[in-house]
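Propose amino acids for all 870 sites.
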């Protein structure tokens, strides 16, 4: 049941060409597959002549080899696949299967979303459509014929170019699609339904005209502009920055409501979770726009980093995902504000990847084993993988990195390769040795760095001693020293930068010497988060304040504020636990911190989006990561108390900020306007936090008068925790306005699940029977159930265990519907080691209950058992 990286063997048989014919029907879809097979010339001795294909959850109608139908004793078929004997080195196999799209609630393979047929084949969904060697190193050209009802499926799509289409008997019609690029089965896609289409075009650098189409449910045509614009900008950016051009005459995107993940890069037919396509000012927030931009770019970029060059096996997933995340992060940085983008990416990494790396599910960027590959589409493979690529970029410089990229695509176009192949291209193009840097692929856990500065006035020398340590993770008791670039700034008293240099840390402990330093400098360490690590060293508060105001590295200005706030809150949390719950008393005098916050707020040289970020306190989840045991109530109270003090002390300033940043102009989603709205929302949040009732009224008024979703949600987000009548009013209004709009209603469910009000769990239970809610839709599950566990620590970790109990029931229920989503939602229960004995016992009991479920899926079993064991 455990698959190991070291067990990789090349496929015994390859497939040249695949011809598929779909007879679409919601209940029983018939699939004919014709495979042109050749024995793999490089196959090892002893590969034998047994052919084995993957296949699950479908009916085998017939199989024929070289046009001769096999008798039942000539093949064997079980729950996981089909085996038969090869007649020779090259042969043709015909397989006919039947699948049931409408009962496919796992949303892998061929399924129905709203009224349309669609597919999701990554990682191993193709085997739920037909028997096939469903592994990424088997690449074939596909010709796909789709037959379907004309009235319900006027639109028929697959990968590549439309070769033919026409009418059939019985009110049916057909389309034939040909994809000239060989691809693995996970990149196959099919869509059929009654969809509206928005069309545009792009001229590539070499003059190819590409038709761009976005398909959505009827009525959503006016919500595609931003996705389309993002697509065109992505295409241009990839040409300019990577020299990579699109390779077909057509690029299609389809938005569907039921989707397990964010989106999928199927060759020339990207399929998206509708949430990451649909946007207009009154339905989408600035954050939605940002996500749409980055996910559209991400999937587009996969055309090269993923499709033209793909993964040899799924252990190499980060080869395409880490690289593509790095590419989309850089795209967003170029489109918007670079420092603000970096802050967001790091905040994400810390909130999602660091906890993963420090918990029972820790695994390397290139894992060594898995039970279910879908469980490894993780923050580690994606985001930490992107940090690894970023470190290569830092190390080699933009030009050296680009040389490596050019060589990589040159060498491996059309191939399925490994992370080692990628690193080798980087090495060969630059004549460097990346052996030690590559340990980031294999070693799990977040390194922790400490540093100490020593100034020698006589020698005018500053010595910086840096040490690194990585704690053991499951299966990896001993850790090696990693190679990482650390960007360092040394600042003089007057704020002037004395040194800006990137040093290479390769040892467990290492000294770096800076010459010609005329005064004791203030250190700005790990600028731009050049290495994805924790810093254990606490800088004195006055140095942090100094950096907040003077560092030329905007990231570290933000970081210094985060560190200061974290230090204050952690101290207060400890005090709170001793003083029996007086949060204000525990905080003590925080005037210095708030004074520094005021300076940031009022510094008009800083852009507004940056100021908004810099004024946000580290979240409850982040704080609980720093505490053992974590006390959710203490964390919640202390953070709120600090917010209240900031709101109270800076009331006048925030009120000014609020009123100065009202905009009457029509909504535009650009970064500048978004920054203005974000800063205003931050001000409103603090004003309400001050406890002064007039500001809750102000929030209620903002909700009522809002002419865009960003302002509406900002108001609702603060009202959400209050007893103010404006809350109920706003929620009722929201439901009335958007009740029919499934993507928008996710926000409404999510808000209520995240409320800190005492009645939240009861409300969440009620909402499960709301007509718009269904356990079958992953977005709904994530916004109501997922948000409760992941964004409402106070209620999820309620001392009486009510949160865990409710949640466990949902996991068990969901596992029968959609194991992939159930497994993903299980992770919060795995954090039991971070909590007090009582909570830990309850969380372990919850995991035991999950594990005792009859017929538990492999997906959920893997996460629950690993979480329970560690
Ligand atoms: N390759 C997709 C992306 O990164 C993710 C699809 C993963 N889907 C899954 N079921 N594991 O954009
Ligand atoms: Zn991806």
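Proposal:
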């Amino acid at each position: 049941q455990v698959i190991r990286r070291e067990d990789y063997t090349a496929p015994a048989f390859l497939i040249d060409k695949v011809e598929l014919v779909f007879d679409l029907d919601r209940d029983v879809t018939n699939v004919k597959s014709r495979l042109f097979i050749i024995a793999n010339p490089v196959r090892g001795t002893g590969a034998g002549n047994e052919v084995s294909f993957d296949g699950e959850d479908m009916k085998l109608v017939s199989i024929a080899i070289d046009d001769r139908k096999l008798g039942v004793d000539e093949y064997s078929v079980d729950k996981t696949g089909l085996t038969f004997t090869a007649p020779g080195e090259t042969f043709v196999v015909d397989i006919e299967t039947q699948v049931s799209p409408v009962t496919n609630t796992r949303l892998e393979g061929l399924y129905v979303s709203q009224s349309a047929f669609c597919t999701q084949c990554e990682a191993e969904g193709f085997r739920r459509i037909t028997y096939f060697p469903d592994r990424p190193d088997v690449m074939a050209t596909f010709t796909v014929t789709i037959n379907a009802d004309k009235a319900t499926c006027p639109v028929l799509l697959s990968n590549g170019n439309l070769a033919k289409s026409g009418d059939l008997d019985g009110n049916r019609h057909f389309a034939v699609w040909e994809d000239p690029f060989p691809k693995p089965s996970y990149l196959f896609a099919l869509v059929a339904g009654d969809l509206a289409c928005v069309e545009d075009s792009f001229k590539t650098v070499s003059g190819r005209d590409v038709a761009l189409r976005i398909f959505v449910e009827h009525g959503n045509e006016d919500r595609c502009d931003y996705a389309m614009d993002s697509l065109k900008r992505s295409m241009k950016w990839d040409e300019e920055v990577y020299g990579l051009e699109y390779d077909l005459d057509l690029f299609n995107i389809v938005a569907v409501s039921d989707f397990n993940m964010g989106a999928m890069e199927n060759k020339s037919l990207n399929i998206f979770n509708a949430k990451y396509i649909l946007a207009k000012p009154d339905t989408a927030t600035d954050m939605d726009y940002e996500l749409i931009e980055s996910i559209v770019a991400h999937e587009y970029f996969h055309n090269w980093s993923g499709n033209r060059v793909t993964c040899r096996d799924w252990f190499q997933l980060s080869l395409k995902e880490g690289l593509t995340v790095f590419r989309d992060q850089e795209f967003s940085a170029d489109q918007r504000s670079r420092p603000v983008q970096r802050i967001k990416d790091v905040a994400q990494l810390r909130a999602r990847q660091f906890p993963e790396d420090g918990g029972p599910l820790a695994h390397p960027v290139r894992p060594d084993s898995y039970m279910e590959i879908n469980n490894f589409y993780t923050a580690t493979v994606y985001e930490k993988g992107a940090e690894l690529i970023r470190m290569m970029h830092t190390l080699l410089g933009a030009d050296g990195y680009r040389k490596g990229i050019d060589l990589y695509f040159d060498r491996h176009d059309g191939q399925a390769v490994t992370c080692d192949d990628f690193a080798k291209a980087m090495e060969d193009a630059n004549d460097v040795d990346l052996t030690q840097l590559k340990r980031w692929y294999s070693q799990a856990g977040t390194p922790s760095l400490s540093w100490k500065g020593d100034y020698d006035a006589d020698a005018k020398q500053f010595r910086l001693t840096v040490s690194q340590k990585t704690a053991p993770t499951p299966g990896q008791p001993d850790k090696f020293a990693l190679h990482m670039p650390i960007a360092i700034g040394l600042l003089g008293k007057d704020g002037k930068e004395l040194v800006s240099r990137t040093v290479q840390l390769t040892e467990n402990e290492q000294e770096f010497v800076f010459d010609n330093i005329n005064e004791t400098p203030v250190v700005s360490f790990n600028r731009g988060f050049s290495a994805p690590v924790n810093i254990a060293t606490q800088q004195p508060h006055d140095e942090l304040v100094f950096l907040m105001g003077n560092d030329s590295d905007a990231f570290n200005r933000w970081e210094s504020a985060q560190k200061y706030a974290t230090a204050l809150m952690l101290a207060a949390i400890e005090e709170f636990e001793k003083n029996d719950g007086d949060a204000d008393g525990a905080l003590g005098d925080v005037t210095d911190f708030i004074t520094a916050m005021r300076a940031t707020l009022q510094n008009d040289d800083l852009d507004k989006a940056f100021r908004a970020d810099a004024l946000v306190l580290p979240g409850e989840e982040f704080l609980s990561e720093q505490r053992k045991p974590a006390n959710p109530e203490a964390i919640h109270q202390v953070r709120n108390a600090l917010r209240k003090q900031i709101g109270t002390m800076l009331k006048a300033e925030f009120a000014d900020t609020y009123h100065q940043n009202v905009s009457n102009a029509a909504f535009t989603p650009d970064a500048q306007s978004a920054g203005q709205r974000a800063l205003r929302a931050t001000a409103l949040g603090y004003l309400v936090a001050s406890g002064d009732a007039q500001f809750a009224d102000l929030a209620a008024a903002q909700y009522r008068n809002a002419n865009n979703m960003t302002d509406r949600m900002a108001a609702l987000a603060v009202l959400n925790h209050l007893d103010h009548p404006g809350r109920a009013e706003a929620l009722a209004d929201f439901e009335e306005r958007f009740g029919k709009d499934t993507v928008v209603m996710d926000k409404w469910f999510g808000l209520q699940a995240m409320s800190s009000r005492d009645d939240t769990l009861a409300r969440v239970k009620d909402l499960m029977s709301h007509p718009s809610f269904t356990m079958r839709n992953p977005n709904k599950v994530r916004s109501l159930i997922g948000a409760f566990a992941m964004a409402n620590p106070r209620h999820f970790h309620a001392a009486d265990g009510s949160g865990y109990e409710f949640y466990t029931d949902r996991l068990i229920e969901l596992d029968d519907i959609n194991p992939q989503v159930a497994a993903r939602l299980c992770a919060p229960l795995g954090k039991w080691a971070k909590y007090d004995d009582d909570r830990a016992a309850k969380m372990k009991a919850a995991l035991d209950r999950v594990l005792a479920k009859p017929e538990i899926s492999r997906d959920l079993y893997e996460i629950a058992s690993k979480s329970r064991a560690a």
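The mean pLDDT is 97. Residues 120, 122-123, 260-265, 298-299, 321, 374, 377, 820 surround arginine (ligand 1) (CB under 6 Å).
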